[in-house]
Amino acid sequence: MKKLFIIALTAVGLLACTGQNGPSNPVAKNGTLPGKFSVSETTQIQFAQGNLQYQASTKTWQFAEHQYDAIGEANKNISDTYDGWIDLFGYGTGNNPTLSSKEEKDYEPYVEWGVNAISNGGNKANMWRTLTRSESEYLFASRANAATLFGFGSVNRVNGLIILPDNWVTPKDVTFTPSTELGLADMGGYGLYRNEKEDNFSHNTYTAEQWSVMEKAGAVFLPAAGIRLGTGVGTIGVWGYYWVQLSYDLGDDPWITNITLSNYELDAYRSQGNYYGVSVRLVR
Questions:
Q1: What is the C-alpha end-to-end distance of the chain, expressed in Å?
Q2: Predicted structure pTM score
Q3: Cα separation, 27 vs 45, whole angstroms
Q4: Are 104 and 275 in contact (CB under 8 A)?
Q5: Cα–chain center distance at 49
Q6: How many other CB atoms sit within 10 Å of the CB of residue 185?
Q7: Distance CA 221, CA 282 (A)
Q8: CA dist., res. 46 & res. 67, Å (int)
Q9: pLDDT at 21 (0 to 100)
Q10: Is the pLDDT of residue 92 over 90?
């Protein structure tokens, strides 16, 4: 199993990741984006309108207003009484979102975030869930034309990954170039792609207004929102990590698969310690 070891959280890439002055989401209904994505031969899903957020002082869950919004350095304030919002969570902390322990055992058993009522996501329990590991692999490696249906880029000056729905047709007012046409190479057929020769986030660039056109056509954007260890936050705008759910008990192995993106690679099969705080984008 591949393992990613984070030795230290540095100031690298600590640029603001929250988009500003963009239009409100014009297409979400109960927090659901319009695009449909195959995650198995028989299953399609739709993504939430933005990354999951939590406010401890009011015990409120919500989705970010825009797909490109991310909390950034303020995640260092994680606590049971913090009156701001956080969006970097330890693995399976649907029942304990402010957990910041560095002990592996504290994150068992897994509790799905989607069991909670999400205020702008229908406000009912069990409406949403996390992608599974096999689904994330299928999304990036096995669905029809998988390698042409994603690309790195920036939206409203926020770096991240663009994922396109199964029936994608590029709107006439914008352009899109798959990163696999710009040197990003398939490294093994399991959702691992790499290109270390350039900054892949330069492949596609959209203003907030241009992204609204892409979004209406079904495109999804995962911002490179960084990572948290304890109360230290880093790699904002450079790396992004998104939990996926395992289908088996951890046992003696606390390393959990996630979707990992950076300026030079995409990996749907990367493993990460369960005590790291990373992003959550739910689906239904």
A1: 28
A2: 0.90
A3: 16
A4: yes
A5: 11
A6: 14
A7: 13
A8: 13
A9: 47
A10: yes
